[in-house]
Amino acid sequence: MKTTWALSAIMMSLTMAACSPVDSNSSNGSVQANEVATSEHWYAESVKKFADTVLIKYRLVTNLPQEACPENAKPDERCFIAEIDFTSNNDMLLGNWEIYFSQMRPVQTVLSDEFNIERVQGDLHRITPSDKFKGFKAGITKTLRFRGELWQLSETDAMPNYYIVAKNQYGEALAPQIIASTQLQIDAETGMEVRPYVEDFVDAKRQYQRSETDKLAWAKSSVLYANNQSVSPNAELAINSILPTPTKQLIAADGAAVSLQAGIDIDDTNFSQLGLDQLGIQAAVDRLAKIGVSQQKGGVKVSFNSLGGSQVNKAGSYELAIDQKGIEVKANDVSGFSYAIASLTSLINPTTLTVNSMKIEDEPRYDFRGMHVDVSRNFHSKQFMLDLIDQMAAYKLNKLHLHMGDDEGWRLEIDGLPELTNVGSKRCHDLAENSCLLPQLGSGPFADSKVNGYYSKADYIEIIKFADARQIQVIPSMDMPGHSRAAIKSMDVRYRSLMAKGEVEAANEYLLTDANDPTEYSSVQYYNDNTLNVCMESTYHFVDKVISEIAALHQQAGQPLTTYHIGADETAGAWLESPICKAFIANNTYGVTDIKQVGAYFIERVANMLAEKGIQPAGWSDGMSHTNVANMPKNSQSNVWDVISHKGYQRAHQQANNGWTTILSNPEVLYFDFPYEADPKEHGYYWATRALNSQHIFSFMPGNLPANAEQWLDIEGNPFEADDRPKLDDKGQLISGPLTNGAQFSGIQGQLWSETLRSDELVEYMIYPRLLMLAERAWHKPSWEVPYQAQGAVYNQTTQHFSASMRQQQAEQWQRIANHLGHKELLKLDKAEIAYRVPTVGAKIENGQLFANIAFPGLQIEYQQQGKGWQPYLQPVAVDGEVHVRAVSADGKRKGRSLLVQ
């Protein structure tokens, strides 16, 4: 399309002059050159002015299929309709421009005459003017209406950082410009991201409801008020409380409180015989200092001794005795000593710095108590990671699953493969992807965005050392063979560079795809080029190179690499028509005879490659389920991420029955990138649940997955049934059933995926305080958990395995923990400068009086009447007009998101 511009008379003359040939020998050549430069400058400034001033508004119209889907849609098809408004301040851009934006759910159909939308790759879409486009007119709003796939149930689905790319009169692309009105802003009081370009959801049926059967209540103030009725303020419950809950705790009946205001004095007399040194417990001692209990002479004496006993204690077991004479810690390993100090820190009243006399005997329920963090989709800083590790140790978590390679980014420097970070760690507007990956997830066009980045070798070594000093194992993960677009595109750049130099053998050494493969596929995230070709030997050279280099970094850090996570999940239908794969199937020594076997072959081969290096292989449960158990190392680890309400307990049982290290990672209770409450303003994806608050995690019964059907509802707020009895196929073969004798889960892991989480502060908001409940469930087995029935059983809302007595015990323990958080523990997070989520407030108005409550009693509630300032809420109070409520952080410095009382 020829570029045309709406110009004033002056600009038109400049353009005409700029289009005239310049004769450098003529007397007026310099004048013409200046005119060209002026015109060039004007074009660039015009684009920038448009980007800076155009107002964009994104509006979800409807999720109702009868309104959104076409007339010929399938009965179960789901669609949504959304609109994008463009309001320009002046007449602009009648021509060759493109606006790029991220749209999580692909656009199916454009319903406006003046615009086209094309999906570029993944979630990146491009808006261009159609032949009917008449230009942006000053003050006139143009609306782009479109139909998308599935639904949008959250205001945060609308990704930020739209940007425009235009061409000058010569057809040359100008520098991209971010459209200012689509940038995120930070709320001054909450510190959280806000999206001024997104219109508020107001229509529950058309915007919030997932389907006609969706009964999940919108978490408005009245809904939260009813939910919060299960807890009431009782500061005394927090006095002797510890998180996570210890196995045994005996409070001295007549023991006076022990003051730690003068600090603690560590007695290292027995350190040598215990194999302990100050460094082993220093991190735990430092956390004490953060709440005001420093290490100094004259403080309360803390002695260290062997735990002893005839029975073999679990790693991390300890005893802690506190009285007026001092504090005694007993353990048999450094983690036990550290965890004892962590329990002391949890006990302390952060205001008075006192603890009561008592004795504690404690040991962990699970050996594996993990937290997974994705830094691939959006990068998160080394400092964030160090802060997270410190808090994990404070609550006795011991495994950090660090996800550093995926479609949207490669985040670790690898010796000999600089392209992985030179190209794969950045997203920017380079459609050829020679210098960076395509923009995704609202990252915008510039490589210097904070969502880009990587850990240098020195950074990674520092992270490992920091974790090791806190008894935390680092488990690295570069997802393969799917979710590998960053690696593929980086190695493509390497290939092109070396081929240009004539170095053919070197160019092919780490190539990851078959250039002649015509297979068409689409991943879950809508990529058609994100899967390694598993039939190429160069793929295995690459995998071996990466693992060997990571292992070397672990060795340098002093924590040998003992577990590596392959990923192996969500592999799309790639390589089906690959000539290389066809040749491999026709002639290989691995027994692969069918194209359907090559995915499992990759996992099995890499797993055994790891085992030969003395490294435990790990993967996600869907990929691991495709393997032949007999071909896998016996100590393989599987992370079960199946949804329990969708029979996810069946795969969990199957993989535990394989004898594998089976780690529960179930999304509806352990994915911390999901919303806290069912509210369109809450951050996060929501494909497994739309309400994942701390109480829900606390209620988890990991030892009896199907029994959770008696206390939970599915994603739409409806009951579900879990049938754990043996199931046979037509041939009498067992297809699902209960855990076999001796089979058990090895632990649980929280997950933080970062597609929608761009800042360190927002990631902390999503992780805390849920991390504390993860620790509670990983460490402590509650008395109210329904015992597992080895023969199998049926569980639903009417069965009574979860008895009234158990429910009462659960409620009483939650009452204690909720008060512990509100009256004591959150203040400690404040002192550590952790930006945890301050909960939204429950409230209702009856007979002109405001009633309010909160999930964590002890936090201050505030209310605001229309036209007035914020006031502390202390008791029911008379109000009139529109009223808002909010909570305040434990230290009084941060505010939670406010809600209209309704």
TrEMBL record:
The answer to whether UniProt assigns keyword Hydrolase to this entry is yes
| Catalytic site positions | E570 (proton donor)
Query: Residue span of the signal peptide, if any?
Result: 1-17
Q: Which domain of life is it from?
A: Bacteria
Q: Which reaction does it catalyse?
A: Hydrolysis of terminal non-reducing N-acetyl-D-hexosamine residues in N-acetyl-beta-D-hexosaminides
Primary enzyme class: hydrolase
Transmembrane helix as a keyword? no
* One Gene Ontology MF term: beta-N-acetylhexosaminidase activity
Per the record, the GO terms for biological process are: carbohydrate metabolic process; glycosaminoglycan metabolic process
Where is it found, in Gene Ontology cellular component terms? membrane
The record's Pfam families line, in alphabetical order, gives: CHB_HEX (PF03173), CHB_HEX_C (PF03174), Glyco_hydro_20 (PF00728), Glyco_hydro_20b (PF02838)
Question: What residue intervals traverse the membrane?
Answer: none
Q: Which SMART domains match?
A: CHB_HEX
Task: Report keywords, A-Z.
Answer: Glycosidase, Hydrolase, Signal
Write down the EC number. Answer: 3.2.1.52
Q: Which family does it belong to?
A: Belongs to the glycosyl hydrolase 20 family.
The protein's name in its UniProt record = beta-N-acetylhexosaminidase
Organism the protein comes from = Shewanella aestuarii
